[in-house]
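name: query_chain
kind: protein
chains: 1
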Amino acid sequence: MPKIKYGPEHPDETYKPHRYEEHLFDTGEVLINFATSGSSDKPAVVLIPGQTESWWGYEKAMGLLSEHFQTFAVDLRGQGRSSRTPGRYTYDNFGNDLVKFIAFHIKRPVIISGLSSGGVIAAWLSAYAPAGMIRAAHYEDPPLFSSETKPAIGPGIREGAGPVFELYNTYLGGQWCIGDWEGMLEGVGDFLPAHMMISFQAGYSKFKNEPPQNMKEYDPEWAKAFTTGSVSASCDHERMLKKVKCPVLFTHHLSKIDPETGRHLGASTTRQVDHVEAIIKKTGQPFTRLSFPEMGHNMHLLDPELYARTFTEWAKTLPGEE
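structure:
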């Protein structure tokens, strides 16, 4: 397969139209792409996708949420139509991009919901955004502690998704500078343990000739930032959680031990979620924990009705916007 680059500099090869109109917000450093649904007289919600996901992963959920909320689904820097910033993929930068977006575009307090690494960014915002900006935060199956190289508790990134991210970065390269998609699929066995290789190959079995749409819109340098630990070098998860200053909903999805290898399967272990809960409760903030042990990692994509219902019922318990 000829090696092709993807991203904002190659729009014809990269992007497709979606249900909602897309817009760009200039932070001064990067352009943040976003889409919105619902009317401005309803509470504002910011939706933060996970790694390898663009805003349109929330497309169905946005339609369901629009009855109760005005939603803003974003592409983080390095994903979707937002800018690529080599060497600058960190939780602090992701978080500050959204602080500017909320302050200068939305211009009112918001509820946030983030999946996976987007859930860690939701945690960052719930801790470090200016007081009063974040009304409440939903962490959707986030890898808190488990995405660190040296976590305070439980397994870290190298025992979890790290091998997959190393595979991405090796064969695709930052900004798709290598772009060897076929080589990546052929080289899976050199990087992934058996239990991960089976699910990886099943997931990409339909995409042997070209990447799926979400991967085209993803800068593989994200993967390097996670495997090296640079993404969270200045953002210790335990220290961050001690600063949380708003109500939190934590939805914990599939989490189990592989009987063959003894490795944990899932974004975070039960002990890690216990630790998150204990830290946040010490801040005095309300903490709601819901377990969905049969649910895959991405609830808002796999079951948008359940996601919207869960989020909406929790939001009803929050203090008013005023």
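note: The chain has a mean pLDDT of 95.
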